[in-house]
Design goal:
By secondary structure, this protein is α/β, with parallel strands linked by helices. The protein has seven helices and 13 strands. The chain has one domain: Aminopeptidase, CATH 3.40.630.10. Helices cover 34% and strands 19% of the residues. The chain is globular and about 45 Å long. The model has no long low-confidence stretch (mean pLDDT 96).
């Protein structure tokens, strides 16, 4: 049986993550965002995705990207994401925020948890997910500045019918237990909960299911994905982050040991939802 995630995938994830972090892809460094956009396009196109670029005339370095992989299935899974990160004050970090550094077993660097590693993890899982469903990624480059362009264009995106939306990431508690966030729960999502709970039980992990979306800091208009794309479509937030990540804070980090089990969660969700 093919492994869901292995050490080689962790190494590749680390390599790509470091490459992305060193670009400094935030609004204060437009050249970094431009390079990040091109890198994301390359990662998807090299895996067979069709790329649609929704041009942002006011800020061409941060368009919306629609990445589609139609593998001929009846089920289509959608993914929210973004390729920009927050800026960082180097003087307040214990390491260079723009170099991926291992500190006490954790990967530390700006954007590592929000949203670089969760995005890279899904990219590395694409060929496996595509065996079960068609895939659509909606990725923007201005999430950290309240998504003004996304709020304009998301209502009119030409997307196929989406059967399930994945949030950009999800969380484990500090004690190692797992929190699943979900909306528009239907029988298939309930089946997913049962299967993920089984996976967690085998590893001694408790599972908590919450009927709410991922907490996000947005402007008064809210998250464009939740406002314009979710509608009545089932939604789940799972991923490799935990409550120690310090998103938007100094010394942002993530635990690479969670890549394996969160990959199992992602794959099992796609498999069950596609049955």
């Amino acid at each position: 049986m093919e492994e869901t995630w292995n050490n080689e995938m962790t190494e590749e994830c680390m390599k790509i993550t470091n490459e992305m972090i060193t670009l400094e892809p935030h609004e204060g460094k437009k050249s970094g965002l431009e390079k990040m956009k091109n890198l994301v396009i390359s990662l998807f196109s090299s895996r067979g995705f069709e790329i649609e670029i929704i041009d942002n005339k006011e800020a061409p370095y941060r368009p919306v990207l629609i990445c589609r992989l139609d593998s001929g299935h009846d089920t289509t899974i959608g993914f929210f994401g973004h390729y920009d990160v927050e800026p960082a004050d180097n003087s307040k970090w214990s390491t260079d925020p723009w170099v991926l550094t291992v500190v006490d077993g954790r990967w530390q660097g700006r954007g590592v948890a929000d949203n670089i590693v969760p995005l890279v993890q899904k990219i590395l899982l694409c060929h496996k997910m595509a065996k079960h469903a068609n895939l659509v990624f909606v990725i923007q480059g201005e999430e950290e500045i309240a998504s003004p362009f996304a709020m304009q264009v998301y209502p009119n995106l030409n997307l196929p019918s989406i059967d399930l939306w994945f949030e950009e990431t999800g969380y484990f508690y500090r004690n190692g237990n797992h929190r699943i966030l979900a909306l528009n729960i239907n029988p298939k999502l309930e089946s997913v909960f049962l299967e993920l709970t089984k996976i967690n039980q085998e590893k001694g992990i408790d599972t908590k299911i919450r009927n709410r979306p991922l907490n996000k800091a947005f402007g008064n208009q809210g998250c464009p994905c939740l406002v314009h794309l979710l509608k009545e479509i089932p939604y789940i937030a799972i991923g490799p982050n935990d409550d120690n990540t310090k998103i938007h804070g100094d010394d942002e980090s993530m635990n690479p040991d969670l890549l394996h089990i969160s990959a199992m969660h992602i794959m099992k969700t796609v498999e069950v939802f596609s049955q």
